[in-house]
Structure formats: structure tokens, C-alpha cells
Amino acid sequence: MDTIPLGTPAQLVVDCADPASLAAFWGRLLGTPPVHRDPSWSYVDGVVRIAFQRVPEPKTGKNRAHLDIQVTDVAAAAATAVAWGATENGPLRADAQGSFQVMHDPEGNEFCLVSNG
């Protein structure tokens, strides 16, 4: 098996209807300013760049991948995210590893707020 990397991750791209609005939401959530390259492409930088590109079709179905965002207090972070346009998906869940809340951003993309304590 070849173990030489083909490349390195550059960014995570999210298809959406309104890149500027979604980048503003995620920038606020992650504490980083959004960058609006043009009407069809915006992004936020952090540990990994998250880019938002306009597509004509709406989101349908569940995401196959999502971001987990580490927070100190899941319930408080969820309340803040809801005030900024997110929605909760189901109840706050907890197990021996910590707690998490499944969320949807303003366009329905899933993400989780997680706490390991």
C-alpha cells in the first residue's frame, strides 16, 4: 500500500443557496470574519477553511459528513446558535463520553455542538 500523500486538505466546501449569508452565520458561530469573494463564493478561515458555493438545487436528505464543534456548555452554545438562525435537531444527548446537540444551520446543513466533559 502506497503511503505517500496525494495532497493535503485545502477546504471543506458546502453547497448552498446564499453563500454570503451562510458564511456570515458560520463566521459568527466560529468567531472568524467571513470573506465574500463574489456572489457565488464566500468562506470563513479557521483550523480548516469552510467555503460556501452557490448551487441551483436545494438541499435534500441528510448530510453524509458534518462538523463537530467543541464547546464548553452545549446547551448554552445551542441557545446562542438558535438565536443566530440555527435549529436544534432532537434533544440534547449525553453519554459517558460527554454531551452533544445535533443542529442545522440556516440552510439545513447538519453540525453538532459537542462537549467532552
Chart the SSEs and their pairings.
Layout: E1 11-16, H1 19-30, E2 34-38, E3 41-44, E4 49-54, E5 67-70, H2 74-83, E6 87-88, E7 93-95, E8 98-104, E9 110-115
Parallel strand pairs: 1-4, 5-9
Antiparallel strand pairs: 2-3, 3-4, 6-8, 7-8, 8-9
Describe this protein's structure:
The protein is α+β, with helices and mostly antiparallel strands. The chain is 19% helix and 37% strand. The chain contains two helices and nine strands, in the order E-H-E-E-E-E-H-E-E-E-E. The strands form two sheets. Strands 5, 6, 7, 8 and 9 form a five-stranded mixed sheet that branches. A four-stranded mixed sheet has the order 1-4-3-2. The protein is globular and about 40 Å long.
Report a brief summary of the structure.
The protein is α+β, with helices and mostly antiparallel strands. It has two helices and nine strands, in the order E-H-E-E-E-E-H-E-E-E-E. The mean pLDDT is 92.
User: Which residues form runs of ≥5 with pLDDT under 50?
Assistant: none
Strand runs, count? 9
Beginning-to-end CA distance, first to last residue: 38 Å
Number of helices: 2
- What is the assembly state of the chains in this entry? single chain
Shape: globular
Strand content: 35-45%
The major sheet is characterized as: 5 strands, mixed
Q: For the residues shown, what is the average pLDDT? A: 92
Helix content: 10-25%
Structural class estimated from helices and strands: alpha+beta
Radius of gyration from the CA trace? 15 Å
Order of helices and strands: EHEEEEHEEEE
